[in-house]
Design goal:
The structure is a single chain. This protein starts with a strand and ends with a strand. The chain has helices spanning 24-40, 83-88, 111-121, 149-167, 216-220, 243-246, 258-270, and strands at 2-3, 13-18, 43-48, 59-60, 65-72, 90-91, 96-103, 125-126, 129-133, 206-207, 253-254, 278-280. The chain has seven helices and twelve strands. The chain has two domains: 2-185, Flavodoxin domain (Rossmann fold); 206-269, 2-Layer Sandwich (Alpha-Beta Plaits). Helix 3 links the parallel strand 7 and strand 8 (125-126). It is an alpha/beta fold and 281 residues long. Strands 2, 3, 5, 7, 8, 9 and 12 form a seven-stranded mixed beta sheet that branches. Strands 1-4-6 form a three-stranded parallel beta sheet. It has a two-stranded antiparallel sheet with strand order 10-11. Helix 1 (24-40) packs parallel to helix 4. The longest helix has 19 residues, at 149-167.
């Protein structure tokens, strides 16, 4: 069990704790955490639970820790495959908590309030929360290149305001107010032009002839679903994070499912404008 020893006399450590298959959530989370750490003259620490080995041990925080916990948004919620880890392996024990979610330019729906509720149940005292745009996992144009400089400025302002709130003598009186509905709504269901549901849960990436067998896709798969000895197949579960596609040096990974392609293209058409992140204190 990995234990973080509490510090009883003020904020000693500021943690960026994140699941980030393609890097957007990591950038969001670490930007906020580093800003808070600098403003409070505290130590910055990071814990990455993206890969399976990062989710094996229990992680316990405590008084003296401020934890910025970040996940991507899938279908308007916290990815369901992360819920067992978040509910069973991370504990706050009085640590200050900041839930953050990154979404692909559509909406974060109830993901932020869902993460806030999980943190509260796990013993964190939430002080702030936010939803911010990152490049969509399916696309290179939907939220492409984000978080960008404008986003970083907002994330930095968010971190500075968290530090100001702490320095002003903040005392925990209950969960921070964030946007979202409670009870949490069901996962967003994509539909075709006729209103029929599109089910892509079992869709898996294909591998083209350009594959060089390097195994990078196996190394970056957050579910360990691609065998390194044969990276052309995906026998395990696929969460559609697209890490294997975006990190393949040969561009050999792709999806060819008609429903997936329709949903991706529809998202790119409907949400091509710039969405903005927001935060709550």
């Amino acid at each position: 069990m990995l234990r973080k020893h509490p510090f009883q006399m003020g904020m000693k450590r500021v943690w960026a704790v994140f699941f980030s298959p393609t890097g957007g959530t990591e950038k969001v989370t670490t930007t906020v955490a580093k800003t808070v750490a600098k403003a409070l003259d505290a130590e910055f620490c990071a814990y990455d639970f993206t890969l399976p080995q990062g989710r094996e041990e229990e992680v316990i925080f405590g008084a003296g820790d401020l934890v910025v916990l970040g996940t991507p948004v899938i279908a308007g919620r916290i990815p369901n495959l992360l819920l067992p880890y978040l509910n069973e392996k991370i504990s706050g024990e009085g640590a200050v908590g900041v839930p953050v979610v990154s979404f692909g330019n559509r909406s974060y729906d109830d993901a932020l309030i869902e993460l806030r509720n999980i943190m509260e149940l796990k013993g964190f005292q939430t002080i702030a929360g936010g939803g911010f745009v990152s490049e969509h996992s399916f696309s290179r144009t939907l939220g492409g290149g984000r978080p960008d400089a404008e986003d970083i400025a907002k994330l930095t302002a968010f971190g500075e305001e968290i530090a100001e709130k702490i320095n002003a003598g903040w005392e925990y009186i209950g969960p921070v107010h964030v946007k979202g509905e409670d009870p949490i709504r069901p996962y967003f269901i994509p539909r075709d032009r006729h209103g029929n549901a599109i089910d892509i849960r079992k869709v898996k990436p294909k591998t083209g002839e350009g594959c060089c067998g390097c195994g990078i896709c196996a190394e970056v798969c957050p579910l360990g679903s691609i065998p390194k000895e044969n990276p052309t197949i995906t026998p395990g579960t696929c969460m559609k994070c697209c890490a294997c596609i975006k990190k393949c040096p040969m561009g050999a990974k792709y999806f060819d499912d008609a429903g997936f392609i329709y949903h991706k293209e529809e998202l790119e058409e409907l949400y091509e404008g710039r969405a903005e992140g927001e935060y709550f204190l």
